[in-house]
Specification:
Largest sheet of chain B: 2 strands, antiparallel
Transmembrane segments (chain B): 6-28, 35-60, 66-87, 99-121, 148-167, 188-218, 230-258, 265-284
Shape of chain B: globular
Membrane topology (chain B): Multi-pass membrane protein
InterPro entries (chain B): ABC_transp_permease (IPR001851), BCAA_transport_permease (IPR052157)
Number of strands of chain A: 10
CATH topology of the domain at 1-86 and 194-199 and 206-240 in chain A: Rossmann fold
Oligomer: heterodimer
Number of strands of chain B: 4
Helix content of chain A: 25-40%
CATH superfamily of the domain at 1-86 and 194-199 and 206-240 in chain A: P-loop containing nucleotide triphosphate hydrolases
Strand content of chain B: under 5%
Strand order of the largest sheet of chain B: 1-2
Strand order of the largest sheet of chain A: 6-7-8-3-9-10
Structural class of chain B: mainly alpha
Order of helices and strands of chain A: EEEHEEHEHHHHEHEHEEH
GO molecular function (chain B): transmembrane transporter activity
Organism (chain B): Plasticicumulans acidivorans
Shape of chain A: globular
Strand content of chain A: 25-35%
CATH class of the domain at 1-86 and 194-199 and 206-240 in chain A: Alpha Beta
Number of domains of chain B: 1
Number of helices of chain A: 9
Distance between the termini of chain A: 26 Å
Radius of gyration of chain A: 17 Å
Order of helices and strands of chain B: EEHHHHEEHHHHHH
Chain lengths: 240, 294
Amino acid sequence: MTSAFRPDFEALQVSNLHAYYGESHILHGIEFEVRRGELITLLGRNGAGKTTTLRAILGLTGRRSGSVNLNGQEVIDWPTHRIAHLGVGYCPEERGIFASLSVEENLVLPPQVRSGGMSVEELYAMFPNLAERRKSQGTRLSGGEQQMLAMARILRTGANLLLLDEITEGLAPVIVQKLGDVLGALKTRGYTVILVEQNFRFAAPLADRHYVIEHGKVVECISREQLPSRMDALHQRLGV
Amino acid sequence: MDFLNIPLPAILAQLVVGLINGSFYALLSLGLAIIFGLLNIINFAHGAQYMLGAFVAWFGVQYLGVNYWAALILVPLTVGAFGMLLERTLLSRLYREDHLYGLLLTFGLALIIEGVFVQLYGVSGKPYATPESLRGALNLGFMFLPKYRAWVIVASLVVCLGSWLIIERTKLGAYLRAGTENSQLLQAFGVNVPLMITLTYGFGVALAAFAGVLAAPIFQVSPKMGSDLIIVVFAVVVIGGMGSILGSIVTGLGLGLVEGLTKVIWPQASGTVIFVIMAIVLLIRPAGLFGKEK
């Protein structure tokens, strides 16, 4: 996992990342990298530190140390709102749909962080349910629709590095299928994606690489090619 | 025409008086609600900031020749800027701590500000002249309403409804609503939340100062004017629901009317009726009339 840093090539390189919530030391030197246009997953059991890794990249944890290099910029000391403007879109685990905003207000809430985002019309074409319910209160949508909204919301901003936390959690298979299609489409458009996922069968066909996290550390990196031969070991690690 | 053996004109007159008091309750509780929503701080300095508004307007006339109409714009800007300074230098250090620290800090600030003004100006009121164009009274048939008091009702309604429209209908308001719900996520989307917090606190303080300027010709300018009023305003905020924007406006005006009505029906109870209502609301709807259960 130690490779020379090439700023025009890697979208994100995380090295020796430590993060804390108050006195609790959650991340113990996370290391991984994502190249432009890749989709990688962070796998691991509950409480391993996957969500905290995404939050630490954005500066949403307490104290943190180490290095987070985004498009060649060291951002470990940056305030959260500036990091977003390097083209990062975040979809939190609890989806984060605002109850006091309508569907459309939720959709257009995040400011543009880069040029080249999708238009509201394109997004409504991609997620027709949202168009029908654009005037509804955001949290009146079904779980699946809320997830679509949480995705659509960051695609409008022009973000090209997406941090997606457990987007399939608790959703019906048909919606999980739809999200898989969306991710496939995003990949062909050149988006870079970091996927935190419990649903390994959802993640496997999409991902270029899998990083397994245990106790706040990356313990294994498995490429798409290595996956078939490492399946048993991986299942053991994830306890599935 | 009588109601409960009370002449109707007397009731109507007290309702108008109640509406004037309600205008101040609404303006002040709106500022408190906005600040509490985004900052999670109960701004105990609100009464002192209202008093500062009145005093700065009085300074303006006394030393700088700033008339009432200019003061109505300039004083909220000045006192609001002072509020932003307090937020940047003091309040911003407390966001990671328990709410109680913010309350203690703002309470302490209120005591210091009031203490300084008592020391300098004593507790008696300073008169502030009603602007020329608003002298005289309107004949409403059942009462003579001083023009200035009618203006207070109109001005506070316009400012309250304007603020409400901005919060409910604009992008800036959407940021405020979203930040009130989940400021971390809003910041993760790239919104400069620390700056937004400073501006929001400044806006809330400016509303208090605006109320102070409006009050100056009615209540006189005195260091204690804020602490007398703010206790009732806190009761209004609790009844309306902490952090509810519309709740604070509607409850402020409504309770002014209730208080006015009590003055004619049972005068002895008029000083306590709001607190009795507060107790009942807390028993039945602990989150307040317009508040959301957390």
